[in-house]
Amino acid sequence: MAVSHCFSRAASAFTAVLLFSFGCVAASHIEDQAEQFFRSGHTNNWAVLVCTSRFWFNYRHVANTLSVYRSVKRLGIPDSHIVLMLADDMACNPRNPKPATVFSHKNMELNVYGDDVEVDYRSYEVTVENFLRVLTGRIPPSTPRSKRLLSDDRSNILIYMTGHGGNGFLKFQDSEEITNIELADAFEQMWQKRRYNELLFIIDTCQGASMYERFYSPNIMALASSQVGEDSLSHQPDPAIGVHLMDRYTFYVLEFLEEINPASQTNMNDLFQVCPKSLCVSTPGHRTDLFQRDPKNVLITDFFGSVRKVEITTETINLQQDSEIMESSYKEDQMDEELMEPLKYAEQLPVAQIIHQHFEDSFPLCSALHSF
Amino acid sequence: MGLLSDPVRRRALARLVLRLNAPLWALPVAWLERTMRSVGLEVYTQSFSRKLPFPDETHERYMVSGTNVYGILRAPRAASTESLVLTVPCGSDSTNSQAVGLLLALAAHFRGQIYWAKDIIFLVTEYDLLGTEAWLEAYHDVNVTGMQSSPLQGRAGAIQAAVALELSSDMVTSLDVAVEGLNGQLPNLDLLNLFQTFCQKGGLLCTLQGKLQPQDWTSLDGPLQGLQMLLLMVLRQASGRPHGSHGLFLRYRVEALTLRGINSFRQYKYDLVAVGKALEGMFRKLNHLLERLHQSFFLYLLPALSRFVSIGLYMPAAGFLLLVLGLKALELWMQLHEAGVGLEEPRGSPGPSAQGVGLASLVAPLLISQAMGLALYVLPVLGQHVAAQHFPVAEAEAVVLTLLAIYAAGLALPHNTHRVVSTQAPDRGWMALKLVALIYLALQLGCIALTNFSLGFLLAATMVPTAALAKPHGSRTLYAALLVLTSPAATLFGSLFLWRELQEAPLSLAEGWQLFLAALAQGVLEHHTYGALLFPLLSLGLYPCWLLFWNVLFWK
């Protein structure tokens, strides 16, 4: 009797040990999963899609932008998080033999205009100034919410631009241009104002690679449809509509994106392979040196979709230590910035001090918050 | 007893005379209106009338009056700010009824499409170009030629481009395109390229100047054919006639072409569906335009449909010719200066008076030559009735013969000028006159070459050598013959022969003379009806200048 008692006790102890070890392993597995859960570092997605050319024969640029809009919406980014800028109205152009449609494939297979397009900047509102104001957030207070890029430091932003361009510039509406230096400076402003976590910049114009040559802010990945000195070519014309419907690069990007669904694990390296020279005639290029993560770890849906990460688990996870780590890292950042502040702004206008003083004067409660 | 004593015969004769007086052919206005309305266009008519300066053979009357009919196809979704025109000029000598049929068919087809962003005007004019001019003047609300046209009730915005169509039969073997317009104006080259693109796409045979396109550019054949076509274009542009309705549109800066369907002896024929497809394609492309055609050249010469010579390449040729005149004038100036200096030394005070007399002796020939030119311009039309009364000729013939008479009278001048002016000038007087004449000629030819290069070049090529060489010494008869051969009238005569030679239909001398007289009449008529500038330029500008050289040659 005493032996069986001992045996049962030993057995229960053994099972308890086993369960405990399993629990430990499981707990660490959950914690790994939790680590992965916050891997990408972004919590919301935005898209800024710009078509810069007007006139009926630039139908393909509007079709390009609308194809990307369609994919981005389908993968989950809502209209409230998309700033769509179209420089001309192709669907309702009197020359359109199929009014209220914009086709991307010939024989009118795919209507990218759809039923619920929401254009934020239309026609003559698409200017360089408006574009830069959208990016940097320096917008007059009367601007409606749908025309603002209300991103924060945990936003992944997709910026897609198409139109006519050249070596170092992109033409807006036949009357003005934006240079690659201006664009790079705008992105730097966005970085300093912490308006993005990571940025994906895609451009489909002639000599598109020149537009991303000058970027110098961190966390930017860029793709272009052609190298400097090459022209991006258009895809097939449609005989019924009478114009070229799409540009080659975006046509093949659209085909690639049609395969993606919100659960896809396809990564950026696959996007870099889209449209090789045999199909595109021009050589697409990309730039990843400013990006901190490895492109093969970056999912397409990190930028093109707005994926709500949901993991069902029956385990409980203790995030206490993580929050401590986060707070300590936060304090470190604070100290770093406090140390760096006088060094950073030595030669420049002491913007931080001015803002800080302003805040102190008007909102004494906010002086504890760190201004940016 | 005679023809008119029998009342039956009298009535028959009266009816015959009445029928002869009535127009042989008139536009079926009511039918056109009805048909266009049934197709779905907004139809309007416009009446016009014109008093011709003299009745020529085709019109046989002073007063020409007619009606234009036009229908407007409104763009379904655009404001009517711009328009395109398809025009079919109808006249008694070329009824162009097949083209009217094609126009109506195209109108019916276009009406069913929704992609028009510009209005399309389908215009049928009476009396060919007179009706077109009346319509254009009323459309743009101007009056440059003295036409009386009723104001237009329907309008469609600024005209961006126009195509004129002339078909002689319902099967065509080739389509000929005419670009030269009034006073040598040309449409934008893009319009011609558009036509050529659709020719190639539709597999149509398209010709320029009535000749096939040269295929072989590597051997000598191609360039020679190209040269022929180039010369034909130069001759047509120099004549300054509107070679089709399109020529009148160009004045209002509306790019326009004339397409002529030619039915000749070829194996492969196209029906009107093929022509209609080409026209539809052209109109659809023009519909896509957002601005006026301005990207391509406005001044060019065409050796073939797919090749052109731009102004930067051909203008230096005229420049070099005029340089000859300039250098000759400089030489004369130097000679005059030397002779003047040489003479001043022995004579003290009479020096300036000698030069003063020299200038005075110049004024008289200048004034007299200019007066002859004025007479040449004004008298033929003014004096046609007087001439018709005294001589058994019709008014048109009277005009032409008066023209020739005054021209020839000018040749007799130098022998009389010297009686008017007391020539105290030494024999350097002719140098001064020649200097003035050279500068005058250079100025005129320069101005002409800028606006109508072909005319300027043609006149320069003929007149410059003899003008530079004219002097009273040496073999007078030889120089006189040369000068007469290169006078403006002789240039016109010669170019007619050259033109027909290039078209492979050479003229005999008698035919050439008849054609020459007809050309003179046409020149005067077109100046009065459309404002063509060849007649005034030659009579008021170049003829007096040429007379000055004639004076120099016969200087005593």
TrEMBL record, chain A:
<dbReference type="GO" id="GO:0003923">
    <property type="term" value="F:GPI-anchor transamidase activity"/>
</dbReference>
<feature type="signal peptide">
    <location>
        <begin position="1"/>
        <end position="27"/>
    </location>
</feature>
<keyword id="KW-0337">GPI-anchor biosynthesis</keyword>
<dbReference type="GO" id="GO:0006508">
    <property type="term" value="P:proteolysis"/>
</dbReference>
<feature type="active site" description="Nucleophile">
    <location>
        <position position="206"/>
    </location>
</feature>
<dbReference type="Pfam" id="PF01650">
    <property type="entry name" value="Peptidase_C13"/>
</dbReference>
<feature type="active site">
    <location>
        <position position="164"/>
    </location>
</feature>
<dbReference type="InterPro" id="IPR028361">
    <property type="entry name" value="GPI_transamidase"/>
</dbReference>
<protein>
    <recommendedName>
        <fullName>GPI-anchor transamidase</fullName>
    </recommendedName>
</protein>
<comment type="pathway">
    <text>Glycolipid biosynthesis; glycosylphosphatidylinositol-anchor biosynthesis.</text>
</comment>
<keyword id="KW-0732">Signal</keyword>
<dbReference type="GO" id="GO:0016255">
    <property type="term" value="P:attachment of GPI anchor to protein"/>
</dbReference>
<dbReference type="InterPro" id="IPR001096">
    <property type="entry name" value="Peptidase_C13"/>
</dbReference>
<comment type="similarity">
    <text>Belongs to the peptidase C13 family.</text>
</comment>
<dbReference type="GO" id="GO:0042765">
    <property type="term" value="C:GPI-anchor transamidase complex"/>
</dbReference>
<dbReference type="GO" id="GO:0006506">
    <property type="term" value="P:GPI anchor biosynthetic process"/>
</dbReference>
<comment type="subunit">
    <text>Heteropentamer. Part of the GPI-anchor transamidase complex, consisting of PIGK, PIGT, PIGS, PIGU and GAA1. Interacts with GPAA1. Interacts with PIGT; this interaction, via a disulfide link, stabilizes the expression of GAA1 and PIGK and links them to PIGS.</text>
</comment>
From TrEMBL, chain B:
<keyword id="KW-0472">Membrane</keyword>
<dbReference type="Pfam" id="PF04114">
    <property type="entry name" value="Gaa1"/>
</dbReference>
<dbReference type="GO" id="GO:0006506">
    <property type="term" value="P:GPI anchor biosynthetic process"/>
</dbReference>
<comment type="pathway">
    <text>Glycolipid biosynthesis; glycosylphosphatidylinositol-anchor biosynthesis.</text>
</comment>
<feature type="transmembrane region" description="Helical">
    <location>
        <begin position="506"/>
        <end position="525"/>
    </location>
</feature>
<comment type="function">
    <text>Component of the glycosylphosphatidylinositol-anchor (GPI-anchor) transamidase (GPI-T) complex that catalyzes the formation of the linkage between a proprotein and a GPI-anchor and participates in GPI anchored protein biosynthesis. Binds GPI-anchor.</text>
</comment>
<keyword id="KW-1015">Disulfide bond</keyword>
<keyword id="KW-1133">Transmembrane helix</keyword>
<dbReference type="GO" id="GO:0016255">
    <property type="term" value="P:attachment of GPI anchor to protein"/>
</dbReference>
<dbReference type="GO" id="GO:0042765">
    <property type="term" value="C:GPI-anchor transamidase complex"/>
</dbReference>
<keyword id="KW-0812">Transmembrane</keyword>
<feature type="transmembrane region" description="Helical">
    <location>
        <begin position="435"/>
        <end position="458"/>
    </location>
</feature>
<feature type="transmembrane region" description="Helical">
    <location>
        <begin position="478"/>
        <end position="499"/>
    </location>
</feature>
<keyword id="KW-0325">Glycoprotein</keyword>
<dbReference type="InterPro" id="IPR007246">
    <property type="entry name" value="Gaa1"/>
</dbReference>
<feature type="transmembrane region" description="Helical">
    <location>
        <begin position="531"/>
        <end position="554"/>
    </location>
</feature>
<keyword id="KW-0337">GPI-anchor biosynthesis</keyword>
<feature type="transmembrane region" description="Helical">
    <location>
        <begin position="297"/>
        <end position="325"/>
    </location>
</feature>
<feature type="transmembrane region" description="Helical">
    <location>
        <begin position="398"/>
        <end position="414"/>
    </location>
</feature>
<protein>
    <recommendedName>
        <fullName>GPI-anchor transamidase component GPAA1</fullName>
    </recommendedName>
</protein>
<feature type="transmembrane region" description="Helical">
    <location>
        <begin position="357"/>
        <end position="378"/>
    </location>
</feature>
<comment type="subunit">
    <text>Heteropentamer. Part of the GPI-anchor transamidase complex, consisting of PIGK, PIGT, PIGS, PIGU and GAA1. Interacts with PIGK.</text>
</comment>
